[in-house]
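Forwarding the complex inputs:
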Amino acid sequence: MTTSDATWPVTRSPDPTSVVAGIAVLALGVLLLLDASSTLELSFGVLAPVACAATGAILLASGMTRRR
Amino acid sequence: MTTSSGSASAQTLRRDRDAGWIGGVAAGIARRFGIDPSLVRLAFVVAAAAGGFGLGAYLLAWILIPSGESASARSRLPTGRAAVEVAIGTGLLLLAALLTFRELGIWFSDAIVWPLVLIASGGALLWRQSLGGLAELPSAPSAREQPRASTPRTAAEVAVAESRRAAAAISRTGIGIALVIAAGFVFLQATGALGAARDVLLALVATVVVLSVIFAPWVVRLVRSLTHERTQRIRSQERAEMAAHLHDSVLQTLAMVQRSAGDPNEVAAIARRQERELRAWLAGRPAPGQAARLAAALEAAAADVEELYGVPVEVVVVGDRELDGDHEAIVAAAREAMTNAAKFGGGSTVDVYAESGAERTQVFVRDRGPGFDPAAVPGDRRGMRDSIVGRMQRHGGRARVGSAPGGGTEVELVLEKRQ
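Prediction (whole assembly, two chains):
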């Protein structure tokens, strides 16, 4: 087998939208876990801005990535 | 070189005084991150409403961020669906910030902040729309961006783009008005004044309903009539574009074939050339050898005419630019003017002078031939009327044909920048 026949692994840069969405879901999961273990007292007043911020960050990342 | 320096400038956070309203902070931040300045301004207004942070942050940024050069990077702004996502995303982040401030107790009053946020959002949309919008696309795509040689599609493409722009403008205006009205409702509700305004509102709604029932048939008829008229206009433009293209290509070639009837090789070459051009046009591809810039396209057209008619064509071009749909039209009109000058100019040299700047493009085609009386041209001669004057008018430009018997001919083509 010559060098040109070798199959090289294709490296892909991560999709920023997926990364931001993953971090947002992870953060929400941690908050809900803390709430379930009574470490944190989650109320609507706390959860609402967190949900808005997560959705906003995902949309912003998607828009900035897409550009057109 | 210019591009790279512009790109580097856009990567550094600088205040943009030219595009700014006060100190250019919001415009500079928007330029740095490639988002709409209206969103950053809205963020500062909302933050100022929530405890005055926005005002302090703006002043601090004004002091700390150095002033930048005047070059803008508006082309980096997202458009279409991306712009909507960026706008909604930024709005949700602002809402999250406001809710957090409210939860922490850093808050004026619901009666002030929410109406202010709504009126700022609606006002920003309306202002942006009234100022023409930053994300508006050019009227026609460039030849390089979208390979296209199908001239008859131009009118339809432009019409579709116009319809989309109009629909987007109506949507933005509608949302802006709804937000401002909602701000009024929220303020009246929060201050307890809605009860007093209810009677007035009911009377207003009743009046609007009655007037709508009375005038709805006329409005519907008017809208249908306008739509029909618009469709007819588009079809008429498409027919005119098709006629102009056929005149410039097939009819000219047939005339050449008649002239060269004694030379079978020459006739075959002309036919093959026309076939290639026509196939490309039917397939919507750029014509073989079609240039992407104005100067090159004019020189190619001049060389073509020189080769076909054996008449010297001198071209001088000052300034250059990418070819978009409108500039492809000015090149086609100039080519037709050169062809006319070569055919009827008595063998004299044809001079072409073109000047292209940021605001306008002008092309002059002159010959020192016998000239003619433009008013005496028969109605069935379509070259000057459709391929030059009509074509320029369809693309928002104008053409002037100056000629007198014995005095040569000058054709002036002007294309102003679309607003």
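The longest helix of chain B spans residues 194-259.
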